[in-house]
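BUG-425 | component: ligand-complex export | severity: low

The export step for heme C jobs runs without errors, but we want the raw record kept on the ticket for reference. Input record follows.
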Amino acid sequence: MLERQSMMLFKKLTARSSLLVVMMFGLFTVMATGIASAQDAASIPTDPAVVGAGKTLFDDNCAVCHKVHGQLLGPALKDLSKRRDVAWSKAFILNSQKVIQSGDADAVALYEEYGKLEMPAHDFSDDELNAILAYIKDESAKAPEVAQAEEAPAAEEAVQELAGIFDNKYMSIILAVNLLILVLILIVLGLTINVLTKYLNEKAELAEEDRELASQRFDFRAMLASKPVVFFVTLLFVTLVTKTVLDGLFSIGVQQGYAPTQPIAFSHEVHAGQYEIDCNYCHTGVTKSKNANIPSANICMNCHSTIKTDSEEVQKIFAAVENNQPIEWVRVHNLPDLAYFNHAQHVKVGGVECQTCHGEIQEMAVVKQHADLTMGWCVSCHRETKVNAEGNPYYDKLVEAHNKRSKEPLTVEDIGGLECSKCHY
Ligand code: HEC
Ligand code: HEC
Ligand code: HEC
Ligand code: HEC
Ligand code: HEC
Ligand code: HEC
């Protein structure tokens, strides 16, 4: 009896404890994997110096195609460490094609999703890879930069544009219409006189002086020779000649709308628009020097060594690199030698957007000259544009002194932007 009872107890106990063991084991496995993945993500350094080094590496090698927050040519890298393990990320960065060709399902899916764009291979040490991942992780934790609403300037621009249209096209149209109306009035007046004269002549019982008036011929020659008419015609002639000469003088070399065919069908719409590649990536001089610079074929090769290599147009880049010949781009914008223009002064110091002077380049399949680049264009912007003094201690005193003298904001004109020698050598 006792034996049976203890036997039952023992069986129960074993059953319970084996259940317990299974449960314990399960718990342990879950914890272990948890710890492992925590360790995986934790192996990414957080030291600010390393993060800083990672940012530099990222900006130099990845930023053309990747942002942390938001998609460019490649996917957004936010929270990369949460969706991929460190070893996978490192292998993919070093040689994505190797990972894809190994048949890794995630890598193949990404490659398909991004239209088989090949990410270039990189030659990094493990420290460098850690630094890049550290930067991505650090940046992921930050809120994305919110694009500032710039509605006010847009409205201002629209008004300016309208004013410009009125200046040019509408004024000419209004003038032409006025002239037409004047001519029509003259014709109607002439016809009325004719009808009236006929009517008077047909009436027999006219007084003597009325008859004289009715039979009076209109003396065209006398009128032409009269002083007011001579004066008026001379004035008109002189004005026209002066205007033509002035127009001619000031329009030398003006090529607004010029859009030459380029040796390679390079499209800003694709590169700067669709793929949002930064203007500075190719035009490396805009913030540093007078010239914006046209990129060399090597910059194209950063991407086209792997992207669209079978395209005929892209192969022209390869030919240029192989033969060590520069691509002969046709220059679109060209000031005469007598004028001095500096990009860094306008872009970096002045904070003027490329589009203000060049139009919506990122929508152009072929670059077209947007502004007329005349002296009048430079000068009127200098008269209207406020100096961008924010965060520029050099201007603080100037602004202070100016505000004492005047209620108007400090414009480029006020800092000497209309002096001949600033723009002419
Ligand atoms: C020429 C453009 C280009 C450059 C440069 C580039 N990538 Fe990529 N990257 C891509 C594309 C496109 C993909 C999508 C996968 C594919 O098409 O192969 C990708 C995918 C990735 C992925 C996988 C993302 C995910 O969601 O799993 C990582 C990680 C990555 N890139 C990191 C980097 C890092 C780090 C650098 C700089 C060292 C870099 N890439 C430079 C284009 C680029
Ligand atoms: C940051 C990467 C990048 C750089 C740098 C770059 N391209 Fe591209 N390019 C692209 C991408 C992406 C496409 C679109 C590929 C597609 O349509 O699948 C493209 C498309 C093209 C095409 C059209 C190819 C075709 O037949 O559809 C031409 C031509 C071209 N690029 C020329 C250039 C030239 C010239 C340069 C250098 C001045 C240059 N690219 C620099 C990424 C780049
Ligand atoms: C991928 C490289 C690349 C990017 C990105 C790029 N450009 Fe260009 N840009 C070129 C090349 C190459 C040329 C010369 C061929 C041409 O005129 O299309 C050029 C020409 C120009 C010209 C005309 C130069 C002349 O001959 O007078 C202007 C203006 C210009 N780019 C402005 C911009 C602006 C603004 C952006 C950004 C919105 C931008 N570019 C982005 C490569 C680039
Ligand atoms: C204030 C007006 C203005 C702004 C802003 C401006 N440009 Fe220009 N850009 C010009 C003028 C004027 C020329 C002609 C210069 C010459 O012929 O010496 C020019 C010429 C160029 C050229 C032809 C090559 C060269 O080196 O001169 C490129 C490329 C160019 N600009 C790109 C840009 C880009 C990219 C930006 C924005 C980052 C920009 N520009 C901003 C007025 C401007
Ligand atoms: C903000 C810059 C700027 C200032 C200030 C400026 N110019 Fe000019 N000027 C230009 C540019 C750019 C051109 C070339 C474009 C053109 O022909 O319209 C030019 C052209 C000229 C031309 C015509 C030359 C030709 O061959 O067509 C004359 C003359 C001239 N400037 C004289 C002056 C005088 C005098 C002053 C001072 C009162 C002056 N400029 C101030 C920018 C400036
Ligand atoms: C869209 C407006 C705009 C246009 C167009 C423009 N500029 Fe300017 N320019 C500026 C601004 C803003 C500054 C002030 C930059 C600063 O804060 O120093 C400036 C400054 C300058 C300066 C330095 C003036 C000084 O006293 O330090 C020169 C020189 C100059 N521009 C030449 C030109 C020439 C030449 C052209 C025409 C080919 C031109 N700019 C067209 C906006 C413009």
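Assignee comment: Attached the raw record above. The domain at 48-140 is CATH 1.10.760.10 (Cytochrome Bc1 Complex; Chain D, domain 2).
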